[in-house]
Design goal:
It is built from no helices and four strands. The protein is mainly β and about 60 residues long. It has a four-stranded antiparallel beta sheet, with no helix packed on it. The protein starts with 11 loop residues before the first strand and ends with a strand. A hairpin with a 4-residue loop joins strand 3 and strand 4. The chain has one domain: Single Sheet (Rubrerythrin, domain 2).
Length: about 60
């Protein structure tokens, strides 16, 4: 009996988006391994405005 081609597991890591101004860990993302570090404008609840957030691992 031959094995059928099942789903392959994708390598995924959990990363945090950290506010550059306050250093708060505001968001978490699950994304594929590799690639460039994310830099996104997200809402910072402490400052109550949108600021630049940078990807950081655990």
């Amino acid at each position: 009996m031959a094995k059928s081609g099942g789903k392959k597991k994708k390598k995924v890591e959990t990363v945090f988006l950290v506010c550059e101004e306050t250093g708060d860990y505001n968001y978490t993302l699950r994304r594929r391994v590799g690639g460039e570090k994310l830099k996104l404008k997200r809402y910072c609840p402490r400052l109550r405005k949108h600021t630049l957030h940078v990807e950081k691992k655990k």
